[in-house]
Amino acid sequence: MNRTLRMLVRVAQTSCILLLGCSTASEVVTCTNNCWTTRAPMPTARDELGVGVVNGILYAVGGLVDAGGTIGALVSTVEAYDPVTNSWTSKASMSTARAGLGVGVVSGVLYAVGGVLGSIEAYDPVTNSWTTRAPMPTARMNPGVGVVNGILYAVGGYPLAGGTSTAVEAYDPVANSWTAMAPMPTARALLGVGVLNGVLYAIGGAATTSAVEAYDPATNSWTTRAPMPTARWSLGVGVANGILYAVGGDTGAPVAAVEAYDPVTNSWTSMASLPTPRYGIGVGVVNGVLYAVGGHPSAGGTSAAVEAYQP
Predict the structure, then answer these.
(1) Nearest one of 193, 198, 267 to 237, comparing CA atoms
(2) Fewest CB within 10 angstroms: 183, 219, 226, 259, which?
(3) Which is nearest to 234 in space by CA: 274, 179, 281?
(4) Same structural domain, 164 and 267
């Protein structure tokens, strides 16, 4: 191998510019717009996890791990991803193993909500510790969770009595109390939730709906919005630069669809597909980049995949 070729190979190994993969966790392939790149995998492969972002760090919370059958084992695992270093670290586990939970962040504290039970736990990244908070009045699995003006909203889900729920309950972390709000028009679970300009959007869900409904806490009322092009459930939702992104999900099989909603025009646009189709996915946004974490891929089992989308 001549000297010039050796130099080219070394450049490719250190910068990953040839897209052949990175030799260390800190090396990241970048792209410019409407494209995906692969990041360091999550240490614990899982689906039905919750994801929250605090101070530029993404936290993957709970979920189901592959137990060698169709139903996985609940975990209390918490792992933190730093996009700057493209690396993961283990954090203090929740006191309760759970999956199908919702996650919201208020004032730098992460809240793990529901997931078969009504209990709430709060994680403080500064102390790396969890505390139990007032339980959700309506215990449910797979609710959607969003935060507006310091109040956390738990929307829909599977209640323990069966069926799907229209329940909307608001949690005030300062008062450590819950309040029932106007119910969601379409009962559903496994929905995605995003917040834009103080309005909460409930998107998709089981059983296989494309419904999009917007909740305004100021008026405690719901309005119907343009439906999502691909009806699905168990999807992830992220908000970047004033646009809401619906990522992956389930239509009877994992899907790769990524669709973007503009609340100004009340319209949807198809975007670059998720490289690894999956449902039960966690989504978080850091500095305008959307991260799709874990999930259930087409091949079965659970996934450790982390893929980053640059709008």
Answers:
(1) 193
(2) 219
(3) 281
(4) yes
